[in-house]
């Protein structure tokens, strides 16, 4: 699955999500975009978008997009706080559908 990590997710977190094909919004040249334009340009770029932006599901409509949104609710966006959620993220990546929002963590 092609997965894009949001700018607020450390790139090293992607290593924990192998064997999925991973990239970042920065690598795609989209790092400076606000949420709505970012979601628009991600069409066709991925099957899942991973963020720690807790407010994105409430502020943006995802159901019409061709990718899923995965929100990780960790203590912070530091790798050591996100790493415990890697296994759950991998599980979600196996079952998530386009236009769906999944929240991991509390």
Overview of the molecule:
There is one protein chain. This protein is an alpha/beta fold and 106 residues long. The protein has one domain. It has helices at residues 35-41, 56-59, 79-82, 86-95, and strands spanning 2-5, 21-24, 48-51, 68-73, 101-105. It is globular, with a radius of gyration of 12 Å. The N and C termini lie far apart (25 Å). 25% of the residues are buried. The mean pLDDT is 95.
Secondary-structure-derived class: alpha/beta
Total helix count? 4
> What is Rg?
12 Å
- What is the overall pLDDT average? 95
The first-to-last residue Cα distance is 25 Å
Shape: globular
**Percentage of residues in DSSP E strands:** 15-25%
Helices and strands in order, then pairings?
Blueprint: E1 2-5, E2 21-24, H1 35-41, E3 48-51, H2 56-59, E4 68-73, H3 79-82, H4 86-95, E5 101-105
Parallel strand pairs: 1-2, 1-3, 3-4, 4-5
């Amino acid at each position: 699955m092609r997965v894009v990590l949001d700018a607020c997710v450390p790139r090293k977190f992607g290593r924990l999500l192998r064997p999925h094909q991973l990239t970042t919004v920065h690598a795609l040249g989209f790092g400076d975009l606000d949420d709505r334009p970012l979601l628009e340009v991600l069409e066709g770029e991925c099957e899942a978008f991973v963020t720690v932006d807790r407010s994105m599901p409430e502020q943006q409509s995802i159901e019409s997009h061709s990718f899923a949104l995965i929100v990780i609710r960790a203590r912070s966006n530091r790798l050591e706080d996100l790493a415990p959620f890697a296994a759950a993220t991998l599980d979600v990546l196996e079952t998530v559908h386009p236009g769906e929002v999944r929240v991991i963590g509390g």
